[in-house]
User: Fold Thioredoxin family protein from Polaribacter glomeratus.
Amino acid sequence: MKNILETSLKNSLSYQEYLDLVKNLLAENKSTGPNQSEDLTNYSLLNSTRMKRLDKTIKITDETSAQIQKINEPTTWLVLTEGWCGDAAQNLPVINKMAALNNNITLKLVLRDENLDLMDLFLTNGGRAIPKLIALDKDNNVIDTWGPRPAVATKLVTDYKAKHGALDAQLKEDLQVWYNKDKGISTQEDFIKLLQKN
Assistant:
């Protein structure tokens, strides 16, 4: 695991580098990842716009800020993501804002489909769900993980699947409406719980 983590960290991007990569690919009518389609490009375009808006509007609560300030050892937040992923677009701006509050936190992003060895170490219910955040200590030992979405949103998805038997376009719409109303608060609450635990 250590080798896989270290290889991924070497290939990682900063938040700004990730935004630039997505933007440059969109200029060529492409999305991140080996699979290219009109749908994936359209999702990437929508997500790029969404992230720009969230970067400006997301507010970090005082409680979250206080908890983040308590991190007194160098920590890396390594996140698996892709430009076409709706959950990533909703959560990365929040994670970036939280990481920026403490110089001990380094946020690094890697593309899932270029790092499947890493992804397969951190599956969610057997699936390659993203975004997936892996918190590492200064020696690159795993402290904790988070993702692919806040616990409240995960329950919304699980309940929908139980009721309707599958995830469909309606759920995607419901989830985006939920994210818009939530404004990153549930993600912050999840992180407060994680940090209090460690």
